[in-house]
Amino acid sequence: MPPQNMNSQHVKRYFATVQHTTFVAAEKRWKADNPKGWVQIPNMHQKILRSDSPLPIWIRLPRSGTKDLHTGLSRSALNALILPTDKNNFRPSVRSKVVKSNRSNRRGVRLIDLESLLAHIESQA
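and the corresponding structure tokens:
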């Protein structure tokens, strides 16, 4: 909180300084977490939504040890559904895509089509 004896101009400057300091600290944390400057994909709540549905079109695989928010499936269970393996005759039952920031990159972000995933779960029930 600003000191009590400040006038309105000082208070505005004080809060502007606090906001800037908070922004700089957040930027430093981001740079520390992303040393190579990789672009982060927004979390599920910030993804583009269908106009007729509150669910996102694509979801990311959850981090290791956590479960997906929409289905409750673990990362390994989702991998079994989206990756071609012997068990599914190299034909995954759930649609997914890999998004790379550059064509020559070896790695990317795997996105799962949520509608396809939910349809597969519904067909298994």
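(Above: one complete record from the training split.) The first strand starts at residue 58 and ends at 60.
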